[in-house]
Known about the structure:
Elements: H1 2-18, E1 25-27, E2 33-35, E3 64-68, H2 77-88, E4 98-102, E5 105-109, E6 113-115, E7 120-123, E8 133-137, E9 143-147, H3 151-154, E10 161-167, E11 172-173, E12 179-181, E13 193-199, H4 202-207, E14 214-215, E15 218-219, E16 228-239, E17 242-245, E18 253-254, H5 255-258, E19 264-268, E20 274-275, E21 278-285, E22 299-316, E23 322-337, E24 349-353, E25 356-361, E26 364-366, E27 371-375, E28 380-386, E29 389-391, E30 395-398, E31 403-409, E32 412-420, E33 434-435, E34 438-440, E35 443-449, E36 458-460, E37 463-466, E38 483-485, H6 496-505, H7 507-512
Parallel strand pairs: 3-4, 4-7, 5-8, 6-9, 7-21, 8-21, 9-22, 20-22, 21-22, 22-23, 23-24, 23-25, 23-26, 24-27, 25-28, 26-29, 27-30, 28-31, 30-32, 31-33, 31-34, 32-35, 34-36, 35-37, 36-38
Antiparallel strand pairs: 1-2, 10-19, 11-18, 12-17, 13-16, 13-19, 14-15, 16-17
Amino acid sequence: MRFAQWITCLLLASVLHAENLSQWVYPGPDNKLIYKTTPAGDRIMDFSTAGYMGGGAALPAVPVKKALKPSGGVDDTTLIQSAIDEVTKLPVENGFRGAVLLEPGTFNISQTLNLAADGVVLRGSGSLGRSATTLKMSGRPFNAVSIGIPRRQRGSSRQTAIEAQTAVTDRYVPSGADRFSVADAAGFSIGDTIIIRKPVTDAWVKFMKMDDLVRDGRPQRWLGTGSTIDIERRIAAKSGNLITLDVPLSDSLDSSYLDPPGVAVVKIIPPQRVRQAGIENLHIQSPPQAISHTQPHFTALRISGQDCWARDLVIEETMNSVSVSGRRITLQNVAVNRRARHQGSSRPGEFAPNGSQILLDRCSVNADNIWFVATGARLSGPIVILNCRFKGDSRAESHQRWATGILYDNVRVPAGSIELRNRGAMGSGHGWSMGWGVVWNCAADYYIVQNPPGAANWLIGSRGQSRTAARPFDSQPQLPEGILDSHGTAVTPKSLYLAQLAERLGPKALKNIGY
């Protein structure tokens, strides 16, 4: 009898351990996710709109319209670019013009290959093995492949208001909310692209304790007062003066610190971006670079678009390898490997997800003295780092000046760290680098996750040491630790992003992206 009771207790303990739940997001009796809120109403945001087509859409198989063999010559740049330009001139059919297929072998390139039109794909025959297609870089440093409208064709980068502008009237809009009230919604319609313009005020900078940054005796500026943080969204629904967004807010809007001038809502002409373009199945290789990233260097991929992707790439020896801006972009199975150690204390960021609705899925970095992931300034998520593996004595971090809404989900960093923190006077005043970020069921050597004033960062279900720290260059005070929940023990659901995606779009959405 005692033996049977002992077995029953063991089984019950095993079930309870396997079903450890977070306080902040957990499945209810009907398996729908329940969210805990802060006293002000803030919650962990729904990250599931990150990725191609807003999440849950399969990456397309675009028909080949042009195939190339390696020339065997010194430089294949013109050969490949001419093929891309030829496909660019084709009509759009079902959203795409077509793919340029590079057959197995080595293509030598000395300049950037540009995909500057909608619906064009550059595809190799494989990233590894005998069938691999290699883009071998040589000459003066350059970027291997660029997806986006050339700078000279972009025109003004500042968005211009058209037809309508109004103001948010709610005293407080919590992070994670998808709706708010405005003074006058008469000029706005469902489907409009809008900018929610959060002002950087003296009151907010002081509240964030970012008005006293000093380095080498010189004041450092975090964010310039009078500037704005612009959050691009689309109107999904409208009822009177209540506007509902297609993507939740990754930041809070607190009139206590933002009035005057208050938060503006501006209807804009949608930005001109390359759409439905991709790069696939390639091996990209540059010469080894045992140098500082402050020197000219080879990079691999730049994407500035909407509903674009990169998948199944192996990238070797580039630096600041992959940078993304725009919206709704997926990087899937992209590996960056560096054997030549970067020189210097300032480091390159191998993945720079500097847009909104960005998904890094099953990507990896193997390198030392770099940032695995580094975010830029004034970003509004969701940004999702899912099932990625990072090897080396480095860290994945929010890098500077108030990005919001990042999720590290089942990320492994065995010899490094994940950091959502105040970087103080590092750089030229990076300061608070991330708010409303989540580290979910990850494993790292250590974490530095800190709570900014009026905001939160969460460390949930993750293994590894949680460290406290002061601002860099300061010894005290130790800044408030972020919200730790079930630290050291994984929680259910295993993946927050996949659970949110399945709840919003159903299980087929998981199959579409390979889960």
